[in-house]
Amino acid sequence: MVLISFCRWSIFVGLFIVVAASVAAYIFAPKGENQTIWRSSLILAFAACYIMWALTLLAQLHPLIVPRRTDARPEGGFSSSQPAAAF
Asked: pLDDT class for 4, splitting at 50, 70, 90?
């Protein structure tokens, strides 16, 4: 029950962590002529990693195609004349 509850909130927890890291990157970016490049690069990297993680997590929680078992035994079982298929 705890695992299911955590999975529901993990998207928002991850978003909060990414927003906090982005704010920290914005505030603590090294000063100088490349400050804007540092800020935008770090924030873009955080956002891209979050989107990839969120899509992977959601694809595992709610798959579009239901997986099928391929190792299930056929109805009649294996006969002696037909060898078992190697998977």
From this structure: low
**How many whole angstroms separate alpha carbon 9 and alpha carbon 2?**
11
pLDDT tens profile 22-68: 999 999 999 999 999 999 999 999 999 999 999 998 888 878 887 77
Is residue 26 a contact partner of residue 39, using CB atoms and an 8 Å limit?
yes
Q: What string of DSSP letters covers the chain?
A: -HHHHHHHHHHHHHHHHHHHHHHHHHHSSPPSTTHHHHHHHHHHHHHHHHHHHHHHHHHHHS-SS----SSPPPTT---TTSPPPP-
Report the residue count for the chain: 87
